[in-house]
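Worked Example 4.2. Consider the chain below.
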Amino acid sequence: MKFNIKTTCIMLAIVIGALSITRVVTILLEGENGRLKRAIYKAKRFAERENIIGLTNHISLNYYDEFGNDRRSLLFITKSFFDEYKNILILIDTLEIKIEGEDAIVHIEAIVYWQENVSSDIIYDTVEVKAGFKKEQKRWKIIELEFFEPEKKRLFNPMIG
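Applying the procedure from the previous section yields the following structure tokens:
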């Protein structure tokens, strides 16, 4: 079978079209649980890329936590962390979602790796968080965070040995 550029372009357009349709159908059928999970992983990617502006869109204007932080102070703390550390990697181990109407509670257990800007040493810690989400203008946004001492403290770092 002889392939020319026109045939290749048509086949590529068909494949891209099929993938696009599959993605749209998946998003339409995923439901609120899937939409919230997608928002969580998007915020995770913004944190790993140290993108404070992207993270801003995932935090409610009504954010408030047990330490007295509001949205502004949470973003300041996050920006300070990004200024001091680099190469952030978040590996989510557990993700449990409970949705009730426009509110959701998410339990996350993860291992977070990072480096100081002045060092090549890898630092890591296990994190356990309960995050409250609220649906605002058709988007899930973080409204509160509560940190716990992780039940499964990791003593072996698979990235280092």
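The chain has four helices and four strands. Residues 84 and 151 are 28 Å apart (CA to CA). Compare this with Example 4.1 before moving on.
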